[in-house]
Amino acid sequence: MSLLQLRDVSVHYTKTGSFFKRKSAVIPVIAQLSLELRPGEIYGLVGESGCGKSTAAKAIIGLHQLSAGQIFFNGEDLSQLTRKARKQQMKEIQMIFQDPYSSLNPRKNVWNIIAEPLRNFEKLSKADELKKVQKLLQRVGLNEESVYQYPHQFSGGQRQRIGIARAMALQPQLLIADEPVSALDVSVQAQVLNFMKEIQEEFRLTMLFISHDLGVVRHLCDRIGIMYRGSVVEEGTVEDIFRRPQHLYTKRLLAAMPEMDPEKRQHKIKQRLQINEEFDRLADTFLDAELQQISDTHWARL
Ligand SMILES: Nc1ncnc2c1ncn2[C@@H]1O[C@H](COP(=O)(O)OP(=O)(O)O)[C@@H](O)[C@H]1O
Ligand SMILES: [Mg+2]
């Protein structure tokens, strides 16, 4: 059974009209998005900025209403649950955000930041709470004394570790990481990614890892979904996507990755131009295409 399943999910934003233009506009952002996460896997959701990745994440944790479709978690339709049952399920889904500078409350010390989810669900004595927070800090490689410090006293990478500690406090089943390393220096990115992989293995977490960068998900994910204009246009294992990409949009993302080998650079530039030209011609037709199964693990809309 899958842990998380999105079935034909659609989400739109409503842009309210101005005084002169009363009519409000409906802007579709997610269109019939379907995907499935199996227990223990890391699924990479990849697409260019603006394609709806964060909106999808927010829909999963209940911050956006669905205009169509269903989301199942542990086999249960989240929209059908009572408030209480829903709260229990939401305990199992935690999220970390892109910007470690704005996602941690600057007026709270690390103790209060990490303890917040605990206080929502568990009644711990102050001493037990402190012990738990210190243990979590230790696990993410930070000093126990950090409990009394404030977010501005940490580097970006350290803040992201604090965010991870907070997300792990309730031992969730699913972690949604929305571009967790995109705001970090390249030198710190690899450290945080390795660390996330460690945590994922240790806690047998299922992870939805969102990124605009295929390079980032390559060494981390088991499977990858390529998202274009609010829908997945190709899905497969890392091998499928990197070795046998089928969709033009996937090929475009691959071609945009920097080429390290100087001998291949010229060829890659030429290839990129050719793909972009084709893309401009065909981009509007992508979402009309039929889903085609390429192998047991691989499909694309072609
Ligand atoms: N609150 C909002 N109101 C209206 N449009 C929004 C809002 N939030 C995001 N959008 C639009 O929805 C689209 C998808 O946004 P988002 O989910 O943040 O994409 P991504 O995370 O892939 O960059 C974008 O075109 C964005 O401008
Ligand atoms: Mg986003």
List the helices and strands and how they pair.
Blueprint: E1 4-15, E2 25-37, E3 42-46, H1 53-60, E4 68-73, E5 76-77, H2 83-91, E6 93-96, H3 110-121, H4 126-139, H5 156-168, E7 174-178, H6 186-203, E8 206-211, H7 214-218, E9 223-228, E10 231-237, H8 238-243, H9 248-255, H10 262-282, E11 291-293, E12 299-301
Parallel strand pairs: 3-8, 3-9, 6-7, 7-8
Antiparallel strand pairs: 1-2, 1-4, 4-5, 9-10, 10-12, 11-12
Helix pairs in contact: 3-4, 3-5, 4-5, 5-6, 9-10
The chain binds adenosine-5'-diphosphate and magnesium ion (MG).
Tally of alpha and pi helices = 10
The small-molecule ligands in this entry are: adenosine-5'-diphosphate, magnesium ion
CATH fold label: Rossmann fold
Number of separate structural domains: 1
What share of residues are in beta strands? Answer: 15-25%
- Fraction in helix: 25-40%
Write down the Rg. 21 Å
Strand count, sense and barrel status of the largest sheet are: 8 strands, mixed
Uncertain segments = none
Which strand order do you get reading across the main beta sheet?
A: 6-7-8-3-9-10-12-11
Mean pLDDT: 93
Sheet/helix structural class? alpha/beta
Q: Would you identify the CATH H-level superfamily?
A: P-loop containing nucleotide triphosphate hydrolases
- General shape: globular
Order of helices and strands: EEEHEEHEHHHEHEHEEHHHEE
What's the CATH architecture name? 3-Layer(aba) Sandwich
